[in-house]
Each structure stands twice: as structure tokens, then as C-alpha cells.
Amino acid sequence: MFFEQENIGFIVLDVMELHQETARSFNCNRKYNALSFRYESDTVIETKNSVFHLGDNAISYFPPNTDYIRTAKLDHVIVVHFLCFGQESRKIEYFYPDDAEKYKQKFRKLLNVWDKKDVGYKMKAASVLCDIFSDIYSENRPPITKNLLINESVEFAIKNFSDSSLTVETLADISHMSETYFRKLFREEYGISPKKYIINLRINYAKELISMGYYTLPEISELAGFNDYRHFSVTFKKLTGRSPSEYRHSYISKKW
Q1: End-to-end CA distance of the chain
Q2: Which DSSP symbol is given to 145?
Q3: pLDDT, average across residues 178-203
Q4: Residue 102 pLDDT more than 90?
Q5: How far apart are CA 202 and CA 137, in angstroms?
Q6: DSSP single-letter state for residue 227
Q7: Cα atoms in the 13 Å half-sphere on the side-chain side of 85
Q8: In the chain, where do the E strands start and end?
Q9: pLDDT reading at 1 higher than 80
């Protein structure tokens, strides 16, 4: 689904505000995407295969080349038209956000930036739209795990794996269960222990830091969540087949 996608690039084409009553329109052959927020609305969208209602505070996405009829008793909406790069959906989608006021303000900000047309306004508008997409993704992204009992713990681990004090006990506490039961559910989900999962996150992060070329290996060890460089080096070689210094050398050799 479009609202569940994170890696999206776009170019803003236009931003507009509509105030309409007793309106009916047929939209076809549009080559661009549309994202809208409805402040006040009593609108029905009809496609060849479906009919749905958009009321107050609805956020909706319309992909290009989608034919539909819009019938509105009332429609106060801000809509942005844009070209999209990367993944996208071919279906009309909509949802009602938990915090409608937040989106009201951000869509209004987007419109103001576009209408003022100050120097660099297209980049500023893209920045605001990116912020909106970030909020939409956060609200609609699917759970990380199939087992929702441990989903919050896995999210916590992904965000905090570089904290050397992170323990499996902490993750079990977040899921409000015993450490033994948490380990069982985690292994059923991922096929490895939660401790090994955390170590894998740390080593993968260390590999990213090495590729950047900004840090020394001891600094990388600490940034990745290891208290002891020797332990880091041994673990790194065990999982990658090369020591951190060998990995860095091979990376630099390939690059040049």
C-alpha cells in the first residue's frame, strides 16, 4: 500500500485549495499523483470497481492514470499534485489520522509555501511534503513482526541496539512477559535468539560505519554498542569471516 511505503521520491507540481458545494467531476488520464487532506467534506468517489466516502479529516491518495467520478455535497480540501519515484500503489487509498489537527497545520503550511513562491519554494514545499509523508508512514506502516506480542520490543531493539546496556531482560519487560517466554516467541519469529539478533544489528551497523571512512575501528566498536574492542573484533570476524581491519582494507581496495 502507498501509505506503508517509506522510500519515496517526488517532485511537487502544484498545491491548491478547493471550496466546493454540490460538485460532480470526472477525472481521467492524469499523469501525476495526488495527495489531499479534507478539512470538511461529504464526498463520494466512484471507480469502476468500488465506491467509498471521504468525510472530514480524510487523507487520500490518488495514483496516476486512475479514472474516477467525484460527487461532493461539500468539499473543502487541500490537494498536492506530484510526480513519484520508487514504489507506488495503483489503487486509491485513504485513512483518517489519529491527530487530524497536526495534518491540518502541515497541509496549510504546504499551501502557504507554494502560494508565496519565495526563492526556493519548490524545495521548501518538497520538504514539507516529505514531513507529511513521514508522519503518514509512521501511522500506517505495518507491524515489524507477525507476532504483535513482541512487536514493541523488536522496535525498541532496532532503535536502541547501539546502547551497550540493552539486554534481553529489558526487551522482555517491554513485552510484559518472562524472559524465557520472550526468547521462545522471538526464536519462533526470527529463527535466532534475541541476543544474536541484537549482535547482528550491531555488526551490520559497524559495517556501515566502516564504509563511511570517518571513524577509527575502536570508535566504531563503541558506536555500535560494544564495550570492549577485542570482543567486537572477535564477534565481527566470526560473523563476517574477516577482522574489522581486513574488512576496511577490502572495502577501500574495491572502492579504488
Answers
A1: 40
A2: S
A3: 96
A4: yes
A5: 25
A6: S
A7: 4
A8: 8-27, 33-46, 51-54, 59-62, 68-86, 93-95
A9: no
**pTM of the full structure:** 0.73
d(CA 31, CA 133): 20
Distance CA 238, CA 117 (A): 56
Contact 32, 63 (CB under 8 A): no
Q: Which residue has the cell 474516477?
A: 68
pLDDT band at 255; cut points 50, 70, 90? low
d(CA 203, CA 21): 58
Residue 115 amino acid letter: D
- 120's torsion region: left (phi>0), alpha (psi -120 to 50) or beta? left
Pairing type for strands 59-62 and 8-27 reads: unpaired
How is the chain split among helix, strand and coil, in percent rounded to 5?
A: 45, 25, 30
- pLDDT per residue over 18-41, tens digit each? 999 999 999 888 899 999 999 999
Residue 144: pLDDT band (50, 70, 90) is confident
The overall average pLDDT reported for the chain is: 92
63-86 core/surface letters (b: 16 or more CB in 10 A; e: else): beebebebebebbbbbbbbbebee
Alpha-carbon dihedral angle through residues 109, 2, 155, 159, given to the nearest 10 degrees = -50
Torsion of CA 175, 179, 182, 186, to 10 degrees: 120
Cross-strand pairs, 9: 85
How many other β-carbons are positioned within 10 Å of the β-carbon of residue 43? 21
What average pLDDT score do residues 38-63 get?
Answer: 95
pLDDT at 7: 67
The enclosing H or E element of 237 equals helix 229-240
